[in-house]
Fold Pimeloyl-ACP methyl ester carboxylesterase.
Amino acid sequence: MPFITKQDNENVQLYYEDFGSGQPIILIHGWPLSGKSWEMQIPVLLNLGYRVITYDRKGFGKSSPSADGYDYDGLAKDLHEIITQLDLQKVILFGFSMGGGEVVRYLTNYGTQNVDKIALISSIIPLVKQKDDNPDGVPQEKLDEIMQALKTDRITFLESFHKDFYNVGLLSKTVSQKQLDYDWAIASFANPIATIKCAESWANTDFRPELKNVTVKTLIVHGDSDNIVPIDTAGKQAAQGILNNDFMIIEGAPHGLNVTHAEELNGIISRFLTSQ
């Protein structure tokens, strides 16, 4: 299996999968899943002629955990290792949910010289937390409940989280039980330390000052029924703060729209990549 060994920590290996040829697209997964979450997008991107690379964030999927390095500087450094060690040029970066943070922090720390365009899908960008100047964000008490649940009963919390991920309820069966079971298995297998520390990063990082660093062509996609990262605190603000963007709202879509609305999302992605 292909792994990249981190140059600053030989005990940490990042698992990646590399498909096709052509201009490279790196797909960065959301929390608390793995690169497997892009299953419904990979064939479409390959058919468009791209080289498609997924990787598991450290501590998730098949990548090694570490005791630290889960802040966005550390995570962007991991992304930089992928790009550097694979010698990728003119890269396209896709960030889903938490993965949007790696994309924006990468542009902040490493610049845009080697990045062609980006996509932020159901992304946390620019801010999750509710503040006086961000009234539509997630209240601190709700974030505290998540952190406490992760520390005391992580496995049970993840079961309910993925129902919210897809807006599954008694009368709303947006995905199958098997899909929920699949996601739960991936998420529960993740390292507990990585799960908690990454949650702290996506919950507490304010990317609003960094939006000015996003100068490449950008696709923003968000569902207007996202119960995990509300569109008003994320997609709409990102579209206001990033100058060169295409902002697409998928009506009725939950956070996990890459699964529930895969056909619509794939069409949006295809048009974005093939447009001039």
